[in-house]
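Fig. S4 source data, part A: sequence.
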Amino acid sequence: MDRRSFLKNSALGGTAAAATTLAAPAYAQGKRKLTMVTSWPRGFAGLADAADKTAENINAISDGMLEVEVKHSGELVGAFESFDAVSSGQADMYHAADYYFVNQHPAFAFFTGVPFGMTAQELNNWYYHGGGMERHHELGEIFGLKSFLAGNTGSQAGGWFRKEINGPEDLQGLKFRMPGLGGKALGYLGVSVQNLPGGEIYQALASGAIDGTEWVGPWSDEKVGFQEITKFYYTAGFHEPAAGLSVAVNLDVFNDLTPAQQKAIEISAGHANVWNLAQYLMNNADALKRLSAGGVKILEFPDSVWDAFGEASGKVYEEFMGDDLFKSIHDDYFASMATSSEWIAQSSVAYRAQRDRVRG
């Protein structure tokens, strides 16, 4: 039984709870120090920056009443251990990509990126004006978390390969690093999918433990140094047309904060979300030019591969449709995407095509 069902069906969640609603909530007084664990090695371009920016914002907005200490991957817990650390109360909050935790619940993927899903703008539309934030809270609270978007990488690249991918058959047997539902889709195409944390990818690719990897995009990928190992780079991927990053606070800790402190976390996360997206979009183009000048072959997947990605992605969604919460969030997500996409196509997409034509 999940947290919400227990509270709803127990005496504590019913009559007893009602009897206490007239009393003012008791909040912890004085300064609070919160420990944030992350899924990123310290100094990782963009990703660690988003975590640090979120903490910096909270410290400033709360006027010193909250002090967030950031412990990056490996400094307190491992990259994929952050969820359990915060859910259990070992740490107060985490910064991560929630699709790392699809084994907890597959619907966490919708708050990072899903195959053939939302762009960054579409994700923000849903999150802030289409009920997405409320769905994030609903899902997180089952596991004792209060979750907010706190970063976005924008569209992620298709990845680095040791050879060109000319058809779906070239994917068969590849050992490829990709987390989330995109990784599950590759599994349907005969790929041996690996889910490695960021700090382990370079060595795995260099040693031949994996044949290829996706990471983020030109700027982050260049910083890691994948171009030192392989020269085949696909710039558009099906798996994460936007990659939201999340901050999640242990729910008991969050509820113990004052309303002003809670709002400081929400607003800090929202600012980091927009700030981080702009950071990536400002840096990716120049990084791609440098990669190309250094001998990297910039490629796009052929239509046959995109079609295979689409078919496999459909199988992944069907795999989880028996879960009511997954189906509900899936339906909300894609309904919002359709609404946003319709207007964007008729406005900004059409404008950009004409702008580029007129300006040459």
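Fig. S4 source data, part B ends here. Residues 1-24 have pLDDT under 50 and may be disordered.
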